[in-house]
């Protein structure tokens, strides 16, 4: 077992049971005209991490380790979208409405696709999830168990919503969780920092935090 220099203390890195999970790097969150923008957010903030996430993905691929992608999206008939989620607030477009990238947050529409720079390779799992957390109503847990994965490195968006929710779900299920802080972003910089602080406080109550460079160093690729 190796280590990754991390906060609040070194992460015990188990090469034979670790995977990267890239959360929701979709056009709907990162490009103008999608779900993120419909909620009133400045999506340009999220574009900055794309090259760093690409480096992290390339490192895991080069090391021959699993890369898991997730997408927050719903079935075209919205049967997996609780009305409480769709009707919340006053967005300019609701989930399922027609927008410039097709129907907002609907599987199969252009906006729900992962951005082309980070496109999954054939054979890499893509977990479509109706919730913020990637364990809720998905086959993620089965996939992890089938492949003997016990540790997850996290990247993607947004830090305090889908990334943190999935880290908490994973932590409760017994996985060691390591967040690459320069490969995640929020529409709210203060929320990103708060999420990192919450995750790592109290002796890594939810998980660890580190940099992409430190993860790549441990991968030795
Ligand atoms: N709104 C927001 O910050 N995030 C989401 O709705 N989903 C994800 O974080 N993927």
What does this structure look like?
With 221 residues, the chain is an alpha/beta fold. Helix content is 34%, strand content 21%. The protein contains nine helices and ten strands. The protein has a six-stranded parallel β-sheet, with helices on both faces. The chain has a two-stranded antiparallel sheet with strand order 1-2. A two-stranded antiparallel sheet has the order 5-6. β5 (98-99) and β6 form a beta hairpin. α4 (50-63) packs parallel to α9 (212-219) and α7 runs parallel beside α8. The protein is globular. The structure holds tricarbonodiimidic diamide. The site of tricarbonodiimidic diamide has 10 residues, from α7.
Radius of gyration: 17 Å
Terminal CA distance reads: 17 Å
Please identify the structural class as seen in this structure. alpha/beta
Number of strands: 10
What general outline do the C-alpha atoms trace? globular
Order of neighbouring strands in the sheet with most strands = 7-4-3-8-9-10
Give the low-pLDDT segments: none
How much beta, percentage-wise? 15-25%
Task: Give the rounded overall mean pLDDT.
Answer: 98
Question: What share of the residues lie within helices?
Answer: 25-40%
What is the tally of helical segments? 9
Question: Which oligomeric form is depicted?
Answer: single chain
- Describe the main β-sheet briefly: 6 strands, parallel
The bound ligands are: tricarbonodiimidic diamide
């Amino acid at each position: 077992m190796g280590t990754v220099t991390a906060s609040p203390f070194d992460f015990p890195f188990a090469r034979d049971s670790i995977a990267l999970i890239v959360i929701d790097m979709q056009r709907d969150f990162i490009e103008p005209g999608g779900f993120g923008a419909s909620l009133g957010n400045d999506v340009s903030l999220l574009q900055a991490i794309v090259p760093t996430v690409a480096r992290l993905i390339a490192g895991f691929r080069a090391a021959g380790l699993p890369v898991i992608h997730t997408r927050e999206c719903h079935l075209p008939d919205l049967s997996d979208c609780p009305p409480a989620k769709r009707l919340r607030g006053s967005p300019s477009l609701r989930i399922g409405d027609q927008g410039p990238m097709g129907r907002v947050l609907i599987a199969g529409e252009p906006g729900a696709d992962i951005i082309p720079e980070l496109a999954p390779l054939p054979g890499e799992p893509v977990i479509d999830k109706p919730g913020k957390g990637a364990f809720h109503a998905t086959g993620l847990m089965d996939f992890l168990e089938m492949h003997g994965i016990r540790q997850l490195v996290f990247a993607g968006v947004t830090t305090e919503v889908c990334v943190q929710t999935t880290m908490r779900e994973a932590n409760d299920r017994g996985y060691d969780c390591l967040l690459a802080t320069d490969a995640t972003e929020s529409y709210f910089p203060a929320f990103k920092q708060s999420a990192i602080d919450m995750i790592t406080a109290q002796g890594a109550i939810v998980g660890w935090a580190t940099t992409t460079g430190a993860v790549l160093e441990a991968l030795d690729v």
